[in-house]
Amino acid sequence: MEEWREEMATIKDIAEMAGVSITTVSRILNNDSSLSTTMETKQKVIDAAKKLNYKKVGRSTKATFRLGIVQWFSAEQELQDTYYLSVRNGIEDFCIKNCIQIVRAFKTDVNYMDYLENINGLICIGKFSKKEVKELKRISKNIVFLDMPVADYSVTSFTLDFEYAVNKAMSYLTKLGHTKIGFLGGREILDSDEVFDDERIKEYVKYCSEHGLDYDKYLKEGQYSIESGYSMMSEFIQSEDMPTAVFAASDYIAFGAMKAIKENGLKIPEDISVIGFDDAQICNYTTPTLTTIHAPAYDMGQYGANFLFGATNCSITTPLNVKMPCELVERESCGPVKNKESR
Prior knowledge:
By secondary structure, this protein is of the alpha/beta class. It has helices at 11-18, 22-29, 39-51, 75-80, 83-97, 130-139, 162-175, 199-210, 226-238, 251-263, 297-313; strands at 3-4, 56-57, 66-71, 101-106, 121-125, 143-146, 156-160, 181-186, 188-189, 195-196, 219-222, 245-248, 273-278, 291-294, 321-324, 327-329. Helices cover 38% and strands 19% of the residues. Helix 6 links the parallel strand 5 and strand 6. One of its GO terms (molecular function) is DNA-binding transcription factor activity.
């Protein structure tokens, strides 16, 4: 069993810097799984050990695993839509539990790739252009993309099963009697004005075509924001043929749509049903509570970090392309169609 011992510092020094007991430091640095403590405490101890140049040695010396995380959203955007924040939290919690050093970078940072030097593995969260994918692959051969299908079987990717998710949402609405179902989507623009096609739109159109539902006048694309959801829903309300249900590509788009519906004197779900996508925690506190598709964002982060770390330690080079299932979470924002859609 490997043990921690000092070079320039002692466990006591680390304990004093982190503000915890010597026993807690020892158990954390030796990755004692029976220890019950917060992630914040573990990170404080690990940071103090690094700062004091404390090295892990034993029968065999292993270099500290440095995992790079690059996020395509800015820190501010993460707070506006917490989906990608949940993905990153999943990665970082896994790293803290396994004493993995984290190197963070946001694509909005100036020269963000410079932060990712001398890493043992790289996880890329979100959407990246073809040019960026090539550049990121040059930084590390051990690379995983989360929430982005990559048309390159030399890298591993974890994505959501949008076909399954859209079919779940649409089937649920049609069983409630809805045939006029609107879709509120978002457009994601990458570098060099490269547009990322949302697979949910393709699956929505496919479902409507296969079930004889009109979709041309019920499909809208804006941005992934509350403001855009409000604007798109307002356009529907002002139209001559308003849908009786809307399926939003994100919860935050749905929140904006719900605001527009209420401001126009309509009731949810009596006049119009609403389904979101992601299952943000706030869905439990809207009025009415929001029916949505649960996207396992946190688990995606955990899986991505676990795969990269494990594959590196075991010298596994075969990549994986994984689609994770998304489940419908029924709450209060959907109901049977009103008067057989006679409006």
